């Protein structure tokens, strides 16, 4: 892992469901000690099931402390819309399971990991075995 | 073709989407989440508002505004996908005040390439790519053969409609329908149908007296 020198990496959880995004964000942040900003971008712009580019943009702004932001989408339009928000070197999308990826990313970000480390941690969560 | 032609095209898409809203939603209910018609209708209604709030200066500008609005307002996967299609096409057109059918064909080809890159879909995956790809191919061919724009756009629309119909027996490999596996077979892909409406609207706007 890179040196814990720069500003902390932020995390944005993008889900079709506002409730799912908020609860997963709260859980990941709490498990990791609350130091990391895990922002939720769930639901469409009216709060129904779907995706809102504006909500994602607002969450990125909230999570960005200068160290970059990792977006973790659930599926479908969340993935596609998140990919459109990518900014080389500062906003990246993780191809990761939603909950496990969020926790792994938050733990790594909380430990001072750089953007690439946090992204890798989220994506490595795909290999977690539960049994 | 000037900016007014492109905004006529957008108006025509808006009309067709509104007219086919229930049909699109019924198709989506069979293999998706029953929101395609409503999502697109909402998206194009927002486009109409955006166009009157800030009238575009060039054909490219109109398509970028269309694409950006669909990305922000649709709420389902068709938003980022159709949004990317039109936004990339608009970027390719640049700031020319007048575009030829050949330039529009090249721009739509770029838009299609961007859609394929974003969604990682290939022909045969039972998606909008199955209608858009033959449409762009037919349009490029017609333009190359020296067809007039009306005939070229009709060829593109026919190819899109045929491509959409050909999605019926396919098993979905991308999008929500792919979770259904074999149960996705026997249904027309709603995104392929709305793609065909977009191409048919282009032909209608070239045929009108406006």
UniProtKB/TrEMBL annotation, chain B:
Entry's transmembrane regions: none
GO biological process, one term: glycerol catabolic process
Record keywords, A-Z: Kinase, Transferase
Domain DhaL residues, every copy: 4-204
Keyword match Transferase: yes
GO cellular component, one term: cytosol
GO molecular function annotation: glycerone kinase activity
NCBIfam families the UniProt entry points to: dha_L_ycgS
Record's protein name: Dihydroxyacetone kinase subunit L
Organism ancestry: Bacteria, Bacillati, Actinomycetota, Actinomycetes, Streptosporangiales
Gene transcribed to yield this protein: dhaL
């Amino acid at each position: 892992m890179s040196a814990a020198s720069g500003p902390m990496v932020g995390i944005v959880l993008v889900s079709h469901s506002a409730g799912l995004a908020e609860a997963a964000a709260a859980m990941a942040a709490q498990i990791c000690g609350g130091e990391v900003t895990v922002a939720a971008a769930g639901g469409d712009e009216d709060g129904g099931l779907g995706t809102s580019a504006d909500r994602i943009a607002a969450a990125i702004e909230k999570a960005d402390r200068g160290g970059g932001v990792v977006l973790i989408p659930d599926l479908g339009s969340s993935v596609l819309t998140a990919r459109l928000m990518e900014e080389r070197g500062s906003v990246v999308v993780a191809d990761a399971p939603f909950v496990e990826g969020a926790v792994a990313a938050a733990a790594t970000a909380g430990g001072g990991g750089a953007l690439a480390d946090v992204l890798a941690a989220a994506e490595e969560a795909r290999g977690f075995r539960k049994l | 073709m000037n900016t007014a032609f492109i905004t006529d095209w957008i108006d025509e898409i808006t009309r067709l989407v509104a007219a086919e809203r229930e049909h699109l939603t019924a198709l989506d209910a069979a293999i998706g989440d029953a929101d395609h018609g409503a999502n697109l209708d909402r998206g194009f209604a927002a486009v109409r508002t955006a166009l009157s709030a800030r009238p575009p200066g060039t054909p490219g500008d109109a398509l970028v505004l269309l694409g950006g609005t669909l990305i922000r307002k649709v709420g389902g996967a068709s938003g980022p996908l159709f949004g990317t299609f039109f936004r990339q096409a608009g970027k390719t057109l640049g700031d020319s005040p007048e575009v030829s059918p050949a330039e529009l064909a090249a721009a739509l080809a770029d838009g299609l390439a961007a859609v394929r890159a974003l969604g990682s879909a290939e022909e045969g995956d039972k998606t909008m790519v199955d209608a858009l790809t033959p449409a762009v191919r037919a349009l490029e061919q017609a333009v190359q053969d020296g067809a007039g724009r009306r005939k070229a756009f009709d060829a593109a629309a026919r190819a899109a409609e045929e491509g959409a119909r050909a999605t019926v027996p396919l098993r979905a490999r991308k999008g929500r329908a792919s979770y259904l596996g074999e149960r996705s077979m026997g249904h027309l892909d709603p995104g392929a149908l709305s793609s065909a409406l977009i191409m048919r609207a282009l032909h209608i706007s070239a045929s009108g007296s406006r």
